[in-house]
Amino acid sequence: MKTFMRNRPAAVVNAFLVAAVFAVAFWTIDRLPGAGQVAIHWGPDNRPDAWIGGAAVQLVNPIVALVIWFLMCAAPQRFAAPGKSPDTVHARLSVVFQIQLAVQLLIAIYALGWSPF
Predict the structure, then answer these.
(1) What pTM did the predictor assign?
(2) Contacts of 9 (CB under 8 A, 6+ apart)
Protein backbone atom coordinates (compact mmCIF):
# COMPACT_ATOMS: atom_id res chain seq x y z
CA MET A 1 0.00 0.00 0.00
CA LYS A 2 3.04 2.27 0.08
CA THR A 3 2.69 3.12 -3.62
CA PHE A 4 -1.03 3.76 -3.12
CA MET A 5 -0.21 6.44 -0.57
CA ARG A 6 2.34 8.11 -2.87
CA ASN A 7 -0.19 8.51 -5.68
CA ARG A 8 -3.24 9.13 -3.56
CA PRO A 9 -5.04 11.68 -5.82
CA ALA A 10 -5.15 9.30 -8.80
CA ALA A 11 -6.23 6.39 -6.59
CA VAL A 12 -9.01 8.50 -5.07
CA VAL A 13 -10.23 9.55 -8.52
CA ASN A 14 -10.26 5.91 -9.57
CA ALA A 15 -12.16 4.95 -6.40
CA PHE A 16 -14.73 7.63 -7.25
CA LEU A 17 -15.10 6.27 -10.79
CA VAL A 18 -15.59 2.71 -9.46
CA ALA A 19 -18.19 4.02 -6.99
CA ALA A 20 -19.95 5.83 -9.84
CA VAL A 21 -20.09 2.59 -11.86
CA PHE A 22 -21.69 0.83 -8.87
CA ALA A 23 -24.11 3.73 -8.31
CA VAL A 24 -25.35 3.63 -11.91
CA ALA A 25 -25.71 -0.16 -11.74
CA PHE A 26 -27.73 -0.07 -8.53
CA TRP A 27 -29.84 2.80 -9.87
CA THR A 28 -31.04 0.68 -12.80
CA ILE A 29 -30.65 -2.85 -11.44
CA ASP A 30 -34.37 -3.65 -11.48
CA ARG A 31 -35.33 -1.70 -14.60
CA LEU A 32 -34.13 -3.91 -17.44
CA PRO A 33 -36.99 -4.75 -19.83
CA GLY A 34 -38.07 -8.29 -20.56
CA ALA A 35 -38.48 -9.41 -16.96
CA GLY A 36 -34.82 -8.77 -16.33
CA GLN A 37 -33.58 -11.50 -18.65
CA VAL A 38 -30.74 -10.79 -21.08
CA ALA A 39 -29.61 -13.17 -23.82
CA ILE A 40 -25.99 -14.25 -23.44
CA HIS A 41 -25.77 -16.93 -26.14
CA TRP A 42 -27.34 -17.46 -29.54
CA GLY A 43 -27.77 -20.75 -31.37
CA PRO A 44 -26.88 -21.51 -34.98
CA ASP A 45 -30.33 -20.29 -36.07
CA ASN A 46 -29.53 -16.88 -34.54
CA ARG A 47 -32.08 -17.27 -31.75
CA PRO A 48 -31.20 -16.74 -28.09
CA ASP A 49 -30.82 -20.02 -26.22
CA ALA A 50 -29.19 -18.94 -22.95
CA TRP A 51 -30.34 -16.20 -20.59
CA ILE A 52 -29.04 -14.48 -17.49
CA GLY A 53 -30.87 -12.37 -14.94
CA GLY A 54 -30.72 -8.62 -15.30
CA ALA A 55 -29.21 -8.09 -11.85
CA ALA A 56 -26.25 -10.29 -12.72
CA VAL A 57 -25.69 -8.42 -15.97
CA GLN A 58 -25.82 -5.08 -14.20
CA LEU A 59 -23.22 -6.12 -11.62
CA VAL A 60 -20.59 -7.72 -13.86
CA ASN A 61 -19.04 -4.42 -14.97
CA PRO A 62 -18.91 -2.87 -11.46
CA ILE A 63 -17.42 -6.01 -9.91
CA VAL A 64 -14.73 -6.16 -12.60
CA ALA A 65 -13.94 -2.48 -11.95
CA LEU A 66 -13.69 -3.10 -8.20
CA VAL A 67 -11.36 -6.08 -8.64
CA ILE A 68 -9.10 -4.13 -11.01
CA TRP A 69 -9.00 -1.16 -8.63
CA PHE A 70 -8.16 -3.41 -5.69
CA LEU A 71 -5.37 -5.16 -7.57
CA MET A 72 -3.90 -1.84 -8.65
CA CYS A 73 -3.95 -0.54 -5.08
CA ALA A 74 -2.48 -3.73 -3.64
CA ALA A 75 0.40 -4.18 -6.10
CA PRO A 76 0.65 -1.47 -8.77
CA GLN A 77 4.33 -2.24 -9.40
CA ARG A 78 3.31 -5.60 -10.90
CA PHE A 79 1.17 -3.86 -13.50
CA ALA A 80 3.64 -1.15 -14.48
CA ALA A 81 5.40 -1.44 -17.82
CA PRO A 82 9.10 -2.33 -17.66
CA GLY A 83 11.13 0.77 -16.96
CA LYS A 84 8.07 2.79 -15.97
CA SER A 85 7.22 4.03 -12.51
CA PRO A 86 4.38 2.21 -10.73
CA ASP A 87 3.13 5.66 -9.69
CA THR A 88 1.71 6.20 -13.18
CA VAL A 89 -0.42 3.04 -13.04
CA HIS A 90 -3.32 4.72 -11.23
CA ALA A 91 -3.31 7.70 -13.58
CA ARG A 92 -3.41 5.50 -16.67
CA LEU A 93 -6.04 3.26 -15.15
CA SER A 94 -8.46 6.19 -14.96
CA VAL A 95 -9.12 5.74 -18.69
CA VAL A 96 -10.20 2.12 -18.12
CA PHE A 97 -12.61 3.16 -15.39
CA GLN A 98 -13.99 5.99 -17.51
CA ILE A 99 -14.74 3.49 -20.27
CA GLN A 100 -16.42 1.17 -17.77
CA LEU A 101 -18.51 4.08 -16.48
CA ALA A 102 -19.51 4.97 -20.05
CA VAL A 103 -20.56 1.36 -20.70
CA GLN A 104 -22.57 1.30 -17.48
CA LEU A 105 -24.26 4.58 -18.44
CA LEU A 106 -25.20 3.10 -21.84
CA ILE A 107 -26.73 0.11 -20.05
CA ALA A 108 -28.63 2.52 -17.80
CA ILE A 109 -29.92 4.50 -20.78
CA TYR A 110 -31.22 1.27 -22.31
CA ALA A 111 -32.69 0.02 -19.02
CA LEU A 112 -34.53 3.28 -18.43
CA GLY A 113 -35.87 3.39 -21.98
CA TRP A 114 -34.16 6.67 -22.85
CA SER A 115 -32.62 5.29 -26.02
CA PRO A 116 -33.38 7.29 -29.19
CA PHE A 117 -33.01 4.12 -31.30
Answers:
(1) 0.65
(2) none
